[in-house]
Amino acid sequence: MKKGFSGLFIIIVVAVLFNSCRKDPSLPEEKTPYSVTYINPRSIFPEKYGMPALPADNPLTEEGVYLGRMLFYDPVLSIDSTVSCAGCHAQQNAFSDPKPYSTGVFGLTTNRNAQPLFNLAYSRVFFWDGRQKTLRELALEPIQAHNEMAMTLPYLRKRLASIPRYRDAFNKAFGSEPDVFNMTLALEQFLLTIVSKDSRFTQMWPGNFNILTQEEKTGLQLFNGLVDEDPVTGALRGGADCFHCHGSVFAQANNPNFGGIANNGLDAVITDKGFGGITGKSTDIGTFKTPSLLNVGLTAPYMHDGRFATLDEVIDHYSDQIKFSSPNLNPQIKVHGPKQRLLTTQEKAALKAFLLTMTDTVFTNNPAYKNPFK
Ligand code: HEC
Ligand code: HEC
């Protein structure tokens, strides 16, 4: 009995001591508690698009998205503080780069064309060769690439930790000091919120055709028309067949059978293996992620290497310059050959007019995506 009592006494003394230690003002202060404002995804993703599969462990918050936006526009992410993500992904170009190859630190250039950034929440593979599956992991690539931002992660953590606005913003978003993992989560949050949904094409979708001009309607018919042979005359007829790979409300197919990743016949001899360089499979050589055609009027130059300066050149390619001997040419295009679908000048103009309905200037002027430092 006595023994039990002294035991209890010791526990109480220890507890009291421990408690008073916690209040000792000479010890570091406890972190100020933080509270975030969750963003309802329905306020970001339109019903027409459906709800994307968002990462469950990185809910969108006002504070997280804002931190991501700061990081996206901040050249301090690069070794010599000259290049930001936005330096290669400009909002007025739907977050693409008007140069075929982008310039990183020390004047070095990238070996592919910078892709536009929007509706990424609906994408399952990233980069032209589909080598990344998540945006948080993707973000570490440009930061460390010697020809983009050439940064090391320990140094970046230190640098961010030395900047008061980041100490404050990380604390608000994650209740943490600046660190690399939370930095990738913030960038992921910002990238996920970049949505393009206000083009005339999107307003038209799926059947509001009366907002199109006659020429645009002709272009739409070509876009959605199959290329096939007239069973009686054997002549080629119909459309330009773009929808198999650039169909859906996103003007982009993620269907692996048709153009999720495909070879659209640019080269007889492949120099950039694309997806094949990642999988090592000969059947993937020369295949690339199919881009969305939304905002295609703003994202020149075109293709993974920016080889076409204008939409006219792109349309000429599909009309009469497909390389039918290209390895792994997508069956949906191969089926047109060897008789190609030769579009008339009028048809080319109509197709182009239709592609230009996909431009979304509400998106390119959206203040939520602008440089927060200006
Ligand atoms: C020096 C130019 C440059 C910088 C800086 C840069 N990017 Fe890129 N970005 C590119 C290029 C080029 C590609 C295509 C690379 C490839 O496919 O191999 C790309 C592709 C992407 C993609 C893939 C899009 C898709 O549809 O698959 C995302 C996302 C992206 N960048 C985000 C970022 C973020 C975030 C940053 C900053 C941390 C950043 N980029 C910095 C040039 C750049
Ligand atoms: C078999 C699938 C397929 C079909 C059919 C197809 N495309 Fe493509 N398209 C692609 C792929 C894949 C790319 C990227 C190729 C690359 O860069 O190597 C691409 C790229 C493009 C680009 C460049 C976009 C950019 O941001 O660089 C445009 C524009 C385009 N296609 C328009 C069209 C049009 C118009 C049609 C119909 C005449 C069409 N496509 C038919 C698969 C297809």
Q: How would you describe the overall organization of this protein?
A:
By secondary structure, this protein is mostly helical. The protein has helices at 2-22, 62-72, 85-88, 135-144, 153-161, 164-174, 180-193, 200-204, 214-224, 243-246, 275-279, 311-321, 331-334, 345-356, 361-364, and strands spanning 227-229, 236-238, 261-262, 288-289. The protein contains 15 helices and 4 strands. A hairpin with a 6-residue loop joins strand 1 and strand 2 (236-238). Helix 12 packs across helix 14. The longest helix is centred in the first third of the chain and has 21 residues, at 2-22. It starts with a helix and ends in a 10-residue tail after the last helix. The protein binds heme C (2 copies). One heme C (HEC) binds at residues 240-242, 244-246, 259, 262, 264, 266, 288, 290-291, 293, 296, 299, 302-304, 314-315, 318, 330, 332-333, 351.
